[in-house]
From TrEMBL:
Keywords: Cell inner membrane, Cell membrane, Membrane, Transmembrane, Transmembrane helix. The chain crosses the membrane at residues 44-65, 72-90, 102-124, 136-154, 166-185. Belongs to the YciB family. InterPro entries: YciB (IPR006008). This is Inner membrane-spanning protein YciB. GO terms for cellular component: plasma membrane. Plays a role in cell envelope biogenesis, maintenance of cell envelope integrity and membrane homeostasis. It comes from the Bacteria. It holds the Pfam family IspA. It is found in: Cell inner membrane. Its main location: membrane. It comes from Oceaniovalibus guishaninsula JLT2003.
């Protein structure tokens, strides 16, 4: 079934809104302890628990409006549910922080497996939006695989060595900006290998 088109601003709000809301909720709750069912939870754990239904509501709205979700959105939702649940169940923020490492690591592994097989799985997902010759897709896939691997390693270093405030800020703003900058830096590649789809 073809994806129904929706307003671009609305789509961005539904995709980027949940992480921004997590950031705001975390800032409001970070210095408070909450007792729920005779267990004490810090603000980070409560913010992580609140993030799960916010993300699922946004994805549900996106699916209702467009008629589809990407495979990556579905995988991300499953990981958020699993690791958000583990975070609350064990009352341990490390699970929620590791989610980012696993998402980036999984993306790097999937793209790397495709490269090992001589294929660009990125082209499979994006070629309709961005017509490009096979050679260009292989170059972009190699670069993006390295980028995802670096982000996975960076997340591990950051959450293990920095404060919660630093990790939440970097997770919410720095990683997305780095990915945006990465794609902007590929403009020459797109021009060199792009195909005119008529």
């Amino acid at each position: 079934m073809a994806e129904r088109q929706i307003n671009g601003v609305l789509k961005q709000v539904l995709e980027l809104g949940p992480p921004l809301l997590f950031f705001v909720v975390y800032l409001q709750l970070r210095d408070t302890e909450y007792v729920i069912g005779a267990r004490s939870y810090d603000g980070f754990i409560v913010a992580a628990a609140i993030f799960v239904p916010i993300l699922l509501a946004a994805m549900g709205a996106l699916w209702a409006l467009t008629g589809r979700l990407s495979r990556m959105q579905i995988v991300t939702a499953v990981l958020v549910i699993v690791f958000g649940g583990l975070t609350v169940w064990f009352n341990d923020e490390r699970f929620f922080k590791m989610k980012t490492t696993i998402v980036y690591g999984l993306l790097a592994a999937i793209l790397g497996f495709g490269l090992w097989r001589g294929q660009s799985y990125l082209a499979f997902v994006m070629s309709e939006m961005l017509p490009m010759r096979d050679e260009g897709w292989m170059i972009l896939t190699r670069r993006l695989t390295a980028m995802f691997a670096l982000l996975a390693v960076a997340n591990e270093v950051i959450w293990r060595t920095m404060s919660n405030d630093a990790w939440v800020t970097i997770e919410t703003f720095v990683f997305p900006v780095l990915l945006f900058a990465f794609f902007m830096a590929q403009a020459r590649l797109f021009q060199t290998y792009g195909e005119d789809d008529g």
